[in-house]
Amino acid sequence: PEVLVYIQSAGSGSYGSVIGYSVNNGKSMSMIANLPPVAENPEASEGYMGHDEFAIVENSLNQRFPVYNPGDTNARPTGGMRQIEYKLSESGGIPQLIVNNIVEY
Q1: Which of 4, 27, 39, 42 has its CA 20 to 30 A from that of 49?
Q2: Is 44 helix (H, G, I), strand (E, B) or coil?
Q3: Edge-to-edge strand order for the sheet containing 16-24?
Q4: From the CB of residue 15, how many other CB atoms can be counted at a distance below 10 Å?
Q5: Phi and psi dihedrals of 11, rounded to 5?
Q6: Torsion region of 44: left, alpha or beta (phi above 0 gives left; psi -120 to 50 gives alpha)
Q7: What is the pLDDT of residues 55-90, one digit of tens each?
Q8: Model-wide pTM > 0.85
């Protein structure tokens, strides 16, 4: 089992982040490596200006947000929505959320 806490910044951008912990055989907990920032992912960052929403869907963490086209105001995005699906994986004994899929609609 894991514990995920969604955090959203105040202000007009409402940028989101996640803090997570994974249980190790019911004996201890390990911090899940930080959720990779959208700005660091070239495939996902174009048109990103925050307004994140998070949800657990089946066994994945989903982050979705509106996509902004050039000239859009913060209150009126016109580029649809983008959703990033993250799966929990372990690398070098450290649990981390990795991008599994990116969808636009």
Answers
A1: 4
A2: helix
A3: 2-8, 16-24, 28-32
A4: 18
A5: 105, -175
A6: alpha
A7: 999 989 999 999 999 999 988 999 999 999 999 988
A8: yes
